[in-house]
Structures are given as structure tokens and as C-alpha cells.
Design goal:
By secondary structure, the chain is an alpha/beta fold. The chain has 6 helices and 13 strands.
């Protein structure tokens, strides 16, 4: 039977209860800096400076490193924010249309060293800090949103992407690339080679430049680093949820059936639900007990009688 455990409390302290090396992969989306107040004392995201936020976040991943298997991976979805002329952390944004709160941009404002309207660069500040702590930064995956939150800005483009960073403890690590392969665009092409590039540099019998479009002759290809996934909603969620379609490839590539998946910021339990639906165990940490109960219900609903969910 598959098992899910949700530990209530601060992530860094809660992870001390998890056995070292017991987790195969960590898939998570931490609170974004300055974008939302969840009403919890000691919550991440309300620090006065980006440097303080990044340091606090990296301390959590110091603990993640301990519980992660030596060949394990970490996948982190993290969004950015803009520096406003003045701080506004009240959470009042004027929206009431059901859009995910992750996409509602709050003003942090007044950050020393940044000008008003500066993009803060939180994701890359975090990525470089993780490198400095010894993590291997293996890839920056672009989450491209076909249905982003509309913006009324006229001096820049509408924001329609976020990052998913892939980190590893070691230069060699578990990565099941076949589990997330994509159908090749021309796998059903029956034109007997017409239009294909030949290895001798000829195309349709003519010399080519070597820059013509490649046509795959295989059924599948490696997954690309730009993932087109629409923003999703979960009706019972207290805040933004990342879509299951975004994290399922992370779980499938980063672990095998029977492995344990970790989310130190469990939230509404999206990672847990997707992990159990794909034959993995789950450990999550959640600061707010009400949200932990929400995770318990969501994961239980997703797995039914085939799994056991415990809140402790």
C-alpha cells in the first residue's frame, strides 16, 4: 500500500524527523517572495530583503540535502516579482476572478539596491545560491503558460513563464528520461525518406547546408526544456497550486515506482496526489495545520482505498 505522511511544522525543523537518504526526489514550489501573506508566523516569503529570503530558503534545502538519496534530484518551481515604489504586503490586489494567487503580482517595493520597476531576479538569485552550497544546477526549465494572468502593462510584455530548476547532489544521478519522452513530430511519416536530411549532407539527392529542419525517424524524442502547461485551479486550495501536468514529469523522471517523493512546502498536496497516483510514496511538510488537513483530504481523494495518508 502506498503511504503519504504530512508533517505539520516549519519545513527545516520538520525535515529533521525524516530519515537521511530516504527520499529519491524532491518536487516543490516554495512561497514566492513578497507576493502573498498566508497568515502564518515564521512563514517564508515575508522577509525584508531578497537576500534574507534566499538564505532562509537555502537553509530548508540544506535539510533536503540530508534526506535526499545520493543519486537524488530536486525540482523547484519559483516565480519572480518586481520592486515597487513602496511596499504593499496587505494581499489586497483588487482581483476576485478565481485566478490562481501564484499569478497575482503583489508589490514588494522599497528594496535597497533596487530601483522601482526593477525585476528582482529571485529565481536566479536562489539558483546561484544553491550552486554556492554545492548543488549541481543541471537545468532551467521554462514553464510556458498559454493562459497567463492578463496584465495592463504597456512598457513590457505580459509575464507568461516561470522557472523549474533541476538540481542534483552528484554529477551522476537517477534520471529516467524514457519515462518522460515525447512523441516525435513526424514519427508517422511514410514518405520513404522524402524531406529527410541524410548523413552525407544530401537532401532529396541534393547537397544541403546542414541547417535544414531535422525530421525524426523515431517514435519518441527527449523531452524539451520548455513545457507548455496551462495554469490550473484546485477548488479547495487556500492559495495558488501548480498544475499536476507540470510536476508529473519531474516525479516520473526523478523517481521510480515505490520511491519516496518529498515536498517541504506541501500546501494543498498537489505533489502528494500526483506522487501516489504514479505509484510513489510521499512525505510533505506544511506549516499551517489547516492546510495540512486540506492536503490529507486531497491526497486521500486522489488515491482512495489504495493509499494511506497520515498527518503528524
Amino acid at each position: 500500500m502506498l503511504e503519504a505522511q504530512i508533517i505539520v511544522g516549519d519545513a527545516a525543523k520538520s525535515l529533521a524527523k525524516v530519515e537521511a537518504g530516504s527520499v529519491r526526489t524532491c518536487v516543490t514550489s516554495p512561497p514566492y517572495w513578497g507576493l502573498r501573506d498566508y497568515g502564518d508566523a515564521g512563514q517564508l516569503g515575508q522577509e525584508a530583503t531578497p537576500q534574507e529570503f534566499v538564505e532562509n530558503l537555502c537553509q530548508v534545502f540544506d535539510e533536503v540535502r540530508r534526506v535526499l538519496a545520493d543519486d537524488g534530484t530536486v525540482w523547484v518551481n519559483l516565480g519572480d516579482s518586481y520592486n515597487g515604489a513602496a511596499p504593499n504586503r496587505s494581499g489586497a490586489n483588487g482581483f476576485n476572478d478565481g485566478r490562481t494567487n501564484r499569478d497575482k503580482r503583489f508589490s514588494v517595493g522599497g528594496v535597497q539596491g533596487l530601483k522601482p520597476k526593477d525585476l528582482v531576479g529571485i529565481p536566479w538569485r536562489f539558483a546561484f545560491a544553491m550552486q554556492d552550497r554545492g548543488w549541481y544546477l543541471r537545468q532551467d526549465i521554462i514553464w510556458a503558460k498559454p493562459n497567463p494572468m492578463p496584465e495592463s502593462v504597456t512598457d513590457r510584455c505580459t509575464k507568461s513563464h516561470e522557472y523549474v530548476f533541476l538540481f542534483s547532489k552528484q554529477p551522476r544521478y537517477f534520471f529516467d528520461h524514457k519515462a518522460i519522452q515525447e512523441p516525435a513530430i513526424h514519427s508517422n511519416d511514410r514518405r520513404a525518406g522524402k524531406g529527410r536530411i541524410q548523413y552525407d549532407g544530401k537532401r532529396q539527392g541534393k547537397e544541403g547546408t546542414g541547417q535544414e529542419a531535422f525530421v525524426s525517424i523515431k517514435e519518441f524524442r527527449n523531452k524539451r526544456s520548455v513545457w507548455n502547461v496551462g495554469v490550473a485551479r484546485y477548488e479547495g486550495a487556500h492559495f495558488a497550486v501548480y498544475p499536476p501536468a507540470l510536476i508529473e514529469p519531474c516525479i516520473k523522471a526523478g523517481s521510480a515506482e515505490g520511491d519516496t517523493v518529498l515536498d517541504p512546502f506541501s500546501g494543498s498536496g498537489t505533489t502528494g496526489a500526483v506522487a501516489l497516483q504514479n505509484g510513489r510514496h510521499y512525505v510533505g511538510c506544511e506549516l499551517n495545520p489547516d492546510y495540512a488537513a486540506l492536503s490529507e483530504k486531497r491526497i486521500s481523494d486522489a488515491i482512495g482505498m489504495f493509499g494511506k495518508v497520515e498527518v503528524c
